[in-house]
């Protein structure tokens, strides 16, 4: 008896078509799912970062992860991480979070910017008569003291000594500047004009040895201080004799 193979062949072809259709359907679902997954880039710790450590670019790396796994306080900008102080240890692979970093205004963060064996000391400097407007944290400056003295001799006569300007500290590091503007406003409501007179003072914070901190304090209490800004590539100290007016203007006869 001869078997009719045609139905078998048709059934076989239909099975192949059905299988292929199921495969393509499953594949399309997988593609759709992949397209729906959102990804984000976050910064993670490249290695363990100890507490109170200042972060540099070698301590972090960028990693692409599914957006749903990005933590709420994750830092997405490297500039917001580099240079910051870690408030508590960050384990390798952990996302860098804002609440694990000390902000600039935090006193604890500022303290860690002071070099070892140095002290931070602040003085107010006249921003109009000096170079305070041009000085930035990280710059190095010299400190000049101007001092004039007078005293009475045995006869009660006042003796005035010529004022002297002398460089007392050289190549010292500026670690902070706080501009403080005291304004006197006069509101002329008739003309709609506000006249403003202002005196600007800059509160400059230096990093000094304990000995130089004492010198700066004495100078600030006994005379007038000016700052001179140094070229970043110039670290040489110069020995000066100081200057008085008679050195530049001949005495009157």
Task: Explain what the structure shows.
This protein is an alpha+beta fold. The protein folds into two domains: 39-102, Antifreeze-like/N-acetylneuraminic acid synthase C-terminal domain (Type Iii Antifreeze Protein Isoform Hplc 12); 107-182 and 199-232 and 239-248, no CATH class. It is 19% helix and 37% strand. The chain has helices at 6-36, 107-111, 210-222; strands at residues 39-45, 60-66, 85-86, 101-102, 119-126, 140-152, 158-188, 193-208, 224-229, 243-244. A hairpin with a 5-residue loop joins strand 6 and strand 7.
Q: Please report the total strand number as a whole number.
A: 10
Our measurement of the CA-to-CA distance between the termini, rounded to an integer number of angstroms, reads 150 Å
**Residues in helices, as a percent range:** 10-25%
Largest sheet: 6 strands, antiparallel
For the residues shown, what is the average pLDDT? 78
Q: Structural class per helix/strand content?
A: alpha+beta
Shape: rod-shaped
Number of alpha- plus pi-helical segments: 3
Domain count: the total is: 2
What would you report as the Rg, rounded to the nearest angstrom?
36 Å
Which parts are unreliable, with pLDDT below 50 for 5 consecutive residues or more?
Answer: 180-199
Portion in strands: 35-45%
Assembly category: single chain
Order of helices and strands: HEEEEHEEEEHEE
Protein name: Pilus assembly protein CpaB
Region (Disordered): 232-253
Transmembrane segments: 7-26
Keywords: Membrane, Transmembrane, Transmembrane helix
